[in-house]
Amino acid sequence: MILIDLDGTLVDTVPDLAHAVNVMLERLGMPGQPEEKVREWIGNGAERLVRRALVGAYEGEPPQRLFQRGYPVFLEAYEENVCRESRPYPGVMEGLERLREAGYPLGCVTNKPARFTEPLLDALGLSPYFGVVVSGDSLPYKKPHPEPLLHAAGFFKVPPVESLMVGDSINDVEAARAAGFRVVCVSYGYNHGQDIHDAGPDAVIDSLDELPGLLS
């Protein structure tokens, strides 16, 4: 069984997330943020992204009243443009096709809320590849907690020792280790500006299309 992260692994979603962030900031009378800055803030779910955008930094907390005003604006703006410019990374479609042909059960495990995950997968033609999709609000916990990975493994009735997580960030590595999975990371993606090699995955690949060869 192979579980694959969404944002930063399968799809480059930064352009549409940055657009929604800046719609929110403009509505609040705050200065916009460049796309590259938003890229560093992604990976812990929509709520955490919005909090980072409101303080303009990776760490820190905005006033709760400001968050309560801004968060619904972000959600509405992103829902309206969830797949305006988001695209699969090179090699993703080819890699998924080869993995499916090889007979691997495939799942998508993401911290993205389900209201965005499912429309995005549908719009990009990715949904048919996945037997299970676990979103950031599908369960009480999300990555780096192991529960989403173990839930998907339970769906497929596959033990963790026979399971692999593919992602782009330390959250994916920590979730995989806690669940007893092996973990492969992509060299691109949104690891908060840090080199993914430093997180200690079992392997790093430059394209999802490299994964079938790595596993054979």
Which helices and strands, and how do they pair?
Elements: E1 2-4, E2 11-12, H1 14-27, H2 35-41, H3 46-55, H4 64-80, E3 87-88, H5 92-101, E4 106-109, H6 114-123, E5 132-134, H7 147-156, E6 164-167, H8 170-179, E7 182-186, E8 203-205, H9 211-215
Parallel strand pairs: 1-4, 1-6, 4-5, 6-7, 7-8
Antiparallel strand pairs: 2-3
Please outline the major beta sheet: 6 strands, parallel
Q: State the helix count.
A: 9
Order of helices and strands: EEHHHHEHEHEHEHEEH
Number of domains: 2
Q: State the low-pLDDT regions, or none.
A: none
For this structure, what is the CATH homologous superfamily of the largest domain?
HAD superfamily/HAD-like
Strand order of the largest sheet: 5-4-1-6-7-8
Distance between the termini: 14 Å
Could you please say which CATH topology of the largest domain applies here?
Answer: Rossmann fold
Question: What's the shape?
Answer: globular
Helix content: 40-55%
Structural class by SSE content: alpha/beta
Q: Based on DSSP secondary structure assignment, what is the total number of beta strands?
A: 8
In angstroms, what is the radius of gyration? Answer: 17 Å
CATH class wording of the largest domain: Alpha Beta
Global mean pLDDT? 97
Strand proportion: 5-15%
In the CATH hierarchy, the architecture of the largest domain is 3-Layer(aba) Sandwich
